[in-house]
Amino acid sequence: MTDLITRDAKHVWHPFAPLLGQADPLPVVKAEGVYLHLEDGRKILDAVSSWWVNIHGHGNKYLAEALYKQALEMEHIIFAGFTHEPAVRLAERLLPLLPGGLEKMFFSDNGSTSVEVGLKLAIQYWHNRGEKRPKILALEGAYHGDTFGSMSLAGKSAFFEAFNDYLFEVVSIPYPHEGKEQETLDAFEKEVKSGDVSAFIYEPLVQGSAGMRIYSPEVLERMLALAKQYEVVRVADEVMTGFGRTGKLFASEYMETAPDIICLSKGITGGTMPLGVTCLSSRVVDAFRNDEKAKAFYHGHSYTANPLACSVANASLDILLDDGVKNMARIEESHQTAISRFENHPMIRSVKCLGTILSMEVETGSQSSYFSNIRDRLYQGFLDQDVLLRPLGNVVYLLPPYIISNEELERIYSLILEQLDLLQSELQNQG
Ligand SMILES: Cc1ncc(COP(=O)(O)O)c(C=O)c1O
């Protein structure tokens, strides 16, 4: 055990894992391009953009320089009663790129808070208008973050069992499984028709944490059109899908009916600084356009619109709109070509691609589950070959930084196939 691991074990608590029985964390000393450099000299290929964040890879000099320059000018200021150029510039540049002609941007510092803000604004929208709409709709399998509001949106999730008694009620609409879309639409229509629904919150086209579940734009379009018809506030959680992940800058661009609110974080600064933003249509803003103190939005985080984060977000946008877009198309092409190699493997149940996301469900003989042992077996198998892939249960997926080369993609595809072969022979030997 190295000195760093010993010190870590004594005082540090890592996310999303039991406290005991886990492998030691791997000490990273440098991150560059698509690689994490470990203390012992190993180089790990980061095929998941470090939790879907580092869209331009690691150690990007352009982002580092933007951060450094901004730090010399102004590191942080209070955003209540004051403003600054990096925040205004980001809002001016980002809002026109989003579908639906959004008007204003509210700043926070991570994905969960961007959703929390979207949800609170959707609820207060009705409150300010003096109307009661008690219900909120979310899709079954949704994941919107770890704060209490966003946990509530996930319904009764195994992750949040300890908190179930403290979460508010949300109506969970059946996930639109292929061939069962009508069930989803019927349940959705029944709810929105009641006139009781304030908001519908959704991860457009792909549910990330539920296992990179990719669903059809047609069914989402029909839900959004119904929501619009019954004046339900549409809240798109693009925390994971935003900034090119699905092949368009934002997944909401695949649909005709735009959201009223879009929540963004993760890729927004290319992984250099934490930042969340919630982008709002004039329809929502109008409900707050008055000088009554009782109707103001009383919400703000200490690091709201942090100038360092805003400057880096502007720089990240420069890269995205230039090399980023070209690389996104190249990665999608590579994934599309690779699909047939996975489809024909006996250990693969299904494989789907959406933009830079490639997701495949591994055969387990039983239902997909996050707690499936196959997850740990595959995670370790990939890591032993110096590739970071974090299967979600029995779903293996790639969400690479956009700078990844075709050769590096090929290395990952080959490794997955190799591990599936191994898994197949292990299962045959067992059974
Ligand atoms: C769709 C979606 N929303 C919200 C979040 C929460 O973001 P954060 O972890 O930054 O709080 C996540 C995180 O994975 C996510 O995938």
Distance between the termini: 36 Å
Number of domains: 2
CATH architecture level-2 label of the largest domain? 3-Layer(aba) Sandwich
How does the helix and strand content classify structurally?
alpha/beta
- Across the major sheet, the strand order is 4-12-11-10-7-5-6
Instruction: Characterize the largest beta sheet: strand count, sense, and whether it forms a barrel.
Output: 7 strands, mixed
Residue-averaged pLDDT: 96
The CATH C-level class name of the largest domain: Alpha Beta
- Fraction in helix: 25-40%
Low-pLDDT segments, ≥5 res: none
SSE order, one letter for each helix or strand: HEEEHHHEHEHEHEEEHEEEHHEEHEEH
CATH-assigned fold name of the largest domain: Aspartate Aminotransferase, domain 2
Shape: globular
Give a written overview of the molecule.
By secondary structure, the chain is an alpha/beta fold. It folds into two domains: 3-59 and 323-430, Aspartate Aminotransferase, domain 1 (Alpha-Beta Complex), CATH 3.90.1150; 61-318, Type I PLP-dependent aspartate aminotransferase-like (Major domain) (Aspartate Aminotransferase, domain 2, 3-Layer(aba) Sandwich), CATH 3.40.640. It has helices spanning 3-11, 49-52, 61-73, 85-94, 111-128, 148-153, 181-193, 217-229, 282-286, 307-343, 373-384, 406-430, and strands at 28-32, 35-38, 43-46, 104-108, 135-139, 171-173, 197-202, 206-207, 213-214, 233-237, 261-264, 276-280, 348-354, 357-362, 387-388, 395-398. The protein has a seven-stranded mixed beta sheet with strand order 4-12-11-10-7-5-6, with helices on both faces. The protein is globular. Pyridoxal-5'-phosphate binds next to helix 5. Pyridoxal-5'-phosphate (PLP) binds at residues 110-112, 115, 143-145, 203, 208-209, 237, 239-240, 265.
